[in-house]
Specification:
The protein is of the alpha+beta class.
């Protein structure tokens, strides 16, 4: 499309808000009127050429007592689209009756087919009519949208001599108009513009990465394309166009079916509008949360693309996904079987509640085709946290583990900063497939494309750069070549995995009976043996303990056995103490034993390790939880060798608790593409300091003299 024409249309529509809605709506509410009116005017333009034929056929069908089903089937055949309008009015003829504008406009809205009615409802346009009428702005608003300065029709506007005044607006061009208006309104409202749509340069790269590797394998038939966070539908429509191009090159006839789900009602309405305009089936676009209300549970797709929201909480979806009472995941998409787990156990694929972006990827992976030759191919955008957030055993790490150990991950491309409208942070495109070519099996390619971009002349939100056609081509060729270069690294799947081992050290205790500890023991004893209230009666707590009481007997044994000296072998102390108790036929509860040992011991690195269990061949020590540590051992390394090399030289008494060993995965782009930048020399730093001093010479003297 001609960008000059595109910008002229956007600017004209944008100015309608200021011309007509000012003083009636606050700026943040302009979008509630302008966006749905833009959609309706576009539909109005497309239906205008067949208006009379539609009205004529509709009259005959009604007179013949044909039902609504027949009407819904017959009228789209006349319009050439999957929508229609049976009202006698158009935007232009509404202006012929200024005094009846409200009733006629409502009649016009009511004349649309059911699929458009849903769009109108999601835009909540009817809620705005009363305000527009009361302020006498509805007529002026419609008048602006039929102005000769713009053309929202797909046909060009010509003058009397047949010269084109305004080019026709293609479906793609209309998509650009929608997107630019949404972006501008979101900026006005300080909203997350990037939640609604993805820049076209990013989409073009994504479709290249998905389709070009298999372009020679595309056969005639039907292909299903899916976006589980479809926004305004840009990825779906671009994918369809690209597949059709590839099919035409090889003389194949293909049918593309587009499926999507969107949680934002306004964006959903725009996406459905786009589907209607292009003759697609709007019933394949669903409204609602993909996470808590999956509308395509029984379908599998050939190609899937998405740019899900990142850094966004999914707490509101948890009830539908997670059974809190049973502490189990009840949605089968997010709990999967894994060969390393015990029978009945499942790998949980739920990230932290504050960021649900990886759930959209898990959802798509659950819908991969298993029986077809091509299987499924996926491209999805994530921010950096999806690469490394989450320790071994966490939901994020489990998701990466599930993906990599199934050998689905083909490539991750690091994009330049400031590529999206609403964020300047680092973003990455993940490419996945369950039909990896042989040379990619067991491998993952990382591409650093952070320096491949062109600067925009004017920022679009936070987007200040774009992928030029040359950049897109370069990234695509690097991906297809699958070779090691400075910007392309190839790794084994195992390179991203590690075993998180738990390293324990023995508990070492000294034992000593001191007067202070005796007081602590008595205080603990009195507290533990305090009488409980019973039937409302209060009992007095004894103020002291004689040597004849149980706790007095315990203290006597301790003093007789151990005196006031420090004992560094707690194992011997424990053995002698329990032997003496047995001789005195004095039984202690577990709570009383704990009180004794907690009160009269303290940790000491020089003491003997405390034995937990001793058999004929093995001695097991009690671990000291405060000294417990963890180590991440690369999957390609032997755990015992790593432990002997990296741990034992520093803590010879340490051991590994193998029951706590967990496998994790993370991908560190920074590490793999790190470029060393040497520190500046002292001479360079000194030169800068002297230069600054020269620039400020005399300034301080001038300030002081002025103060005087």
């Amino acid at each position: 499309m001609n960008y000059t024409t595109h910008n002229a249309i956007v600017n004209f529509i944008w100015n309608i808000a200021d011309d007509v809605l000012r003083d009636v709506y606050v700026r943040g509410k302009y979008r509630d009127v302008i966006l749905p009116m833009t959609v309706l005017r576009r539909l109005d333009c497309l239906l205008e050429p067949t208006k009379e034929k539609v009205l004529e056929l509709h009259k005959r069908l009604e007179e013949g007592n044909f039902g609504q089903t027949a009407i819904a089937q017959q009228l789209p055949r006349v319009t050439g689209y999957v929508f229609y309008n049976t009202s006698k009015f158009t935007f232009k003829t509404l202006l012929d009756f200024p005094s009846d504008i409200q009733a006629n406009f409502e009649n016009y809205l009511n004349g649309f087919s059911e699929n458009v009615q849903e769009i109108i409802a999601k835009f909540k346009l009817r809620n705005q009519i009363e305000t527009l009428v009361e302020s006498n702005r509805l007529y002026a608003l419609i008048q602006k949208f039929v102005a000769k300065e713009i053309n929202l029709s797909s046909d060009p506007v010509k003058d009397e001599n047949g010269e084109i005044i305004h080019e026709g607006l293609t479906n793609l061009g209309m998509g650009y108009v929608f997107e630019e208006l949404i972006r501008r309104f979101n900026e006005e409202n300080n909203e997350e513009a990037g939640e609604h749509f993805t820049p076209r340069d990013i989409i073009q790269l994504m479709v290249n990465l998905i389709f070009l590797p298999i372009e020679n394998q595309i056969q005639g038939g039907t292909y299903l394309v899916y976006d589980d966070a479809c926004g305004s539908g840009g990825m779906l429509t671009e994918s369809e166009a690209f597949i059709q191009q590839l099919a035409e090159k090889s003389a194949k006839k293909v049918t593309i079916e587009l499926y999507g789900q969107e949680v934002n009602p306004e964006t959903y309405a725009i996406c459905q509008s786009d589907m209607l305009i292009k003759g697609r089936d709007p019933d394949k676009i669903y409204y609602g949360s993909t996470i808590s209300n999956d509308k395509f549970a029984d379908l599998q797709f050939d190609f899937m693309l998405a740019n899900p929201p990142y850094g966004k909480s999914w707490t509101v979806d948890q009830e539908a996904v997670f059974d809190g009472k049973k502490k189990e995941v009840k949605d089968s998409r997010f709990a999967v079987e894994h060969p390393d787990l015990k029978p009945g156990e499942k790998l949980t694929l739920l990230p932290r509640s504050s960021d649900g972006q990886l759930l959209f990827l898990v959802n798509m992976l659950s819908k991969m085709k298993q029986s077809s030759t091509l299987g499924s191919r996926i491209a999805i955008v994530h921010n950096g946290s999806a690469l490394f957030t989450g320790d071994a055993g966490s939901g994020e790490s489990n998701i990466r583990r599930w993906i990599i150990e199934n050998d689905w991950l083909e490539c991750i491309i690091g994009l330049p900063l400031n590529m999206f409208y609403n964020t300047g942070i680092a973003t990455y495109i993940w490419v996945l497939s369950n039909r990896k070519p042989e040379d990619r099996q067991g491998k993952v390619q990382l591409i650093d494309a952070t320096e491949w971009y062109g600067k925009l002349r004017k920022n679009l939100g936070k987007k200040n750069c774009e992928l030029t056609q040359a950049d897109i081509q370069r990234i695509t060729e690097t991906f297809l070549a699958f070779e090691e270069t400075e910007q392309s690294k190839i790794f084994d799947n195992e390179d991203f995995g590690y075993h998180k081992i738990t390293v324990d050290r023995p508990l070492r205790l000294t034992f000593q009976v001191t007067s202070e500890r005796v007081e602590q023991f008595l205080a603990g004893s009195l507290s533990d043996s305090s009488p409980k209230k019973n039937s409302g009666e209060q009992q007095e707590i004894p103020l002291n303990i004689s040597s004849n009481t149980k706790h007095g007997l315990i203290l006597g044994i301790l003093k007789d056995l151990f005196g006031s000296e420090t004992h560094k072998d707690f194992n011997r102390v424990k053995q002698e103490f329990e032997k003496a108790l047995k001789a005195e036929e004095l039984k202690l509860t577990a709570k009383e034993f704990k009180l004794v040992y907690d009160t009269f011991t303290e940790k000491d690195e020089t003491a003997e390790p405390v034995i937990k269990k001793k058999t004929k061949d093995v001695v097991t020590y009690e671990p000291d939880s405060e000294l417990r540590d963890t180590e991440n051992v690369p999957l390609k390394e032997d755990i015992e060798e790593y432990f002997a090399r990296e741990v034992l030289p520093h803590v010879p008494d340490a051991w590994i608790d193998y029951e706590k060993t967990v496998r994790g995965y993370e991908i560190s782009f920074t590490k793999y593409f790190y470029k060393f930048k040497p520190l500046r020399s002292l001479e360079e730093i000194a030169a800068d300091i002297f230069a600054l001093e020269a620039e400020t010479e005399g300034v301080l003297r001038q300030i002081v003299s002025e103060e005087k």
